[in-house]
Amino acid sequence: MSSEAPEDRMRKFKYRGKDASMIRQHRIAVNVQLRKAKKDEQVLKRRNITNLCSHSASGEETKGVKLTLEEIISGVNASDPIICFQATQAARKMLSREKNPPLKRVVEAGLIPKLVEFLTSSLHPCLQFEAAWALTNIASGTSDQTRAVVEGGAVKPLVELLSSPNLIVCEQAVWALGNIAGDGAEFRDSVISSNAIPHLLALISSTTPITFLRNITWTLSNLCRNKNPYPCKKAVEQMLPVLSQLLQHQDNEVLSDTCWALSYLTESCIERIGQVVDMGVLPRLVQLMTSSELNILTPSLRTVGNIVTGSDHQTQLAIEAGILSVLPQLLLYPKSSIQKEAAWTLSNVAAGPQQHIQQLIDCNVLPPVLALLKNGEFKAQKEALWVVANFTNGGTVRQLIHLAYSGVLEPLVNLLTIPDAKFVVIILDIISFLLQAAEKLSKKECLCLLIEEPGGVDRIKILQFHENPHVALTAMNIIEKYFSEEEDSGPILQSLD
Hints:
mainly alpha; 497 residues
């Protein structure tokens, strides 16, 4: 999590708590920096740079004569299908160069309409394949280049190629459609409205080659990606049963892209969360959260994290599926991004009703949370802080006393020196909540001592003069109410037990 203001986190708000007038002023949303899909997590578009086909239109192997762009333009407009094939293959090879393929030049040369036309050449499957491959690579480029492919009319014939008896042609069409759908919601919906999903799903069987299945799964994940708007309800209903089946697959790439698909569907949308949860996938997702493969762990954890931003019932189903036995381990994961995601997930459980908070206690989740709060990387510490903040906002008096007894005050006091004023206020609010709870149970003196021992009182006193008026006022209120020199001295310390 970055040092962005807590208000920035309100985008994914899950209201829970006992006092609507004061609780949930801080959290609960996910920080854009924390949750955005990074380039190394799942690729939006992919260029095909591997030579998969050596067939020619005449049945002879083509050595692939290098042609200039001008010769390619002339060739694709020839009446001889062999010349058309050779020119199209040369264009594809030009676009399949690993470094600096001339996507822009090919688009500007006006080749797309001819490539789209060749997609319908059912008598020449190798020409279809080369054209589909070339269009795949153009669509892997910028949004403008993808738009040129779509506006060139490629989507409909590509969808028709999903029924091609030629497996290589069919697979390349899947890849091209995946690149188009990955560009954004507009083109994703263009693919969906062209009835691609039933054709894609029909390609999946127990005999589907694994490389082909990986491509299909990746394309399905792109059809689940993006919001504003989300994919339509009908499309989700079509895909979810198959995604649920793919979640049982043993191939790492298939599992990873399936989990990414579910993570997109569950992001910030209560209706889609319901659709996913109703498929009964939670136990398998929790199992995948224990994977040693980061490309499976990351999206499965993200999906579960999204689900617990939903209703209390959905969160309870996640708890029953065993998330509270897995998340504490992930707080200790060697990769900080996983620690942050796990803490974010727990913070939304802590934002639930008091029975969810009690389950956090019963499953012994607090010790690893506090260990992260004490020793974690700074960004991970902030996520752990949200767990504690939500816990104190919604917990019962006795749950708060349990939190105080668990050793939360020392790391909180140590974090009072951070330069982020908004988070200092959150820490002061937590301390204030704990003091209020202790006062109600006549435990105030003992709690005051626990704050004083690590130097907390001195730090809070200094914060009364903080340049941020909210920090200064909050600190002053704590000192005046609980640590004023006018209060009676020499209290008899009481146990928190």
